[in-house]
Amino acid sequence: MVTTRFQVVPPGALRAGIAPLSRLSVVAADNVRRAYQTLVTERQLASQVGTLQKENDVLRQRNELLTREVARLRQVVKITTTQAPNALGIAQVVAVDPSPLLARLDLNKGARDGVRLRMPVTVPRGLVGQITDVSANHATVLALVDPESTVGVTLQGSRGGRGVARGVPPDRLRADFSRSVPVKVGDVLVTNSLGGVFPVGIPVGTVEKVLPLGPNDINRRVIIKPAVDVGVVEDVTILEGL
């Protein structure tokens, strides 16, 4: 006959054996909880950083727009103060002809604002062109560099010499002077009274190149860099015609 004896484990010893396991469970659970909280926090921070970056981008764009608007308004003030005597008013460029062979600008002023054909259009730096088409609320400017544009020019100062400048797309002019005119690279050309369209003395451009004279040439031809880059013009002054 086999007798089985069970040894009774004292309660204290049982608790002592289980305690380390309990502590391990608590530590493990605590680590899991901390890891989860860390993950949540990192995601929240990443979300906040993304939101702040978007807000910063928006603020930067607004600042750039405001900076451009301030620059535009300063230009308007300059136009008003320097060209007020003969100015009909200030207009905004609302469209530019996309053709690389033409240079024409659409303005947001028209016949209702007193705009008429052949009125000169300028900015403080110089001549832009003249009005060639007018509707009730809009007008078209034929810019100096358009191939159909012509303007009488002379050397700035008292050096004289009359010539006619014509547009050369996309961004230059050419002018012909008498062979005897001492025009040279760097000379500034301004409007003269030829044609009776433009007031005298408005800057047209600077002589960039003087072409060689042939033995039979009676005129001296020059290439002109215009005083005004019509591609970046935003506001212009429309002058009363002569």
Briefly say what this structure is:
This protein has 242 residues and is α+β, with helices and mostly antiparallel strands. Helices cover 30% and strands 32% of the residues. The protein starts with 10 loop residues before the first helix and ends with a strand.
Q: What general outline do the C-alpha atoms trace? A: elongated
Q: Assign the CATH topology of the domain at 150-229.
A: Thrombin, subunit H
Give start-end ranges of low-pLDDT stretches. Answer: none
Write the H/E string, N to C: HEEEEEEEEEEEE
How far apart are the termini? 139 Å
The class by helix and strand makeup works out as alpha+beta
Topology of helices and strands:
Blueprint (H helix, E strand, L loop, with lengths): L10 H73 L3 E10 L7 E4 L12 E4 L2 E9 L4 E5 L6 E6 L6 E7 L3 E7 L9 E4 L11 E8 L8 E8 L8 E5 L3
Antiparallel strand pairs: 1-2, 1-12, 2-5, 3-4, 3-12, 4-5, 6-7, 6-9, 7-8, 8-11, 9-10, 10-11
